[in-house]
Amino acid sequence: MTTGGSGNDRTPPRLSDLQIEERLRSLPGAAGVRARAPAQANMSGQTQPVFADFYRGDDSLYKHTIVKDRAPTAAVEIVAGPAFLTQRGLKVGDRVVLGLNGRKITAIVVGQVIEGNALALGAT
Predict the structure, then answer these.
(1) What CATH number corresponds to the domain at position 94?
(2) Which residue segment(s) compose the domain that 19 sits in?
(3) pLDDT at residue 5, as a whole number
């Protein structure tokens, strides 16, 4: 389900973000709930923007997708697929500077996922 965000195609949520998460967790058979917030960011040394998917909630998703090292556990840690890493000459352990909403942070690549968008990275 997608709510909020910008554009005319989105339905405004009637519940807060945390209320939605609580309601989803209460559903019978719900094994986990994970929230995703996509954002466009800039990466130092790159001419094209990158897309960052920020996740909150259960990290069981990563259990089956991490193929090298580990999932991010802190806000300054990222993971990406092989196409993203290869196109930017990156590997696990490298540091990158990301710009988002007027702020710059230095993040470290802590893992590689089995596949992914060549323009996107994942973070916690």
Answers:
(1) 2.40.70
(2) 1-30
(3) 56
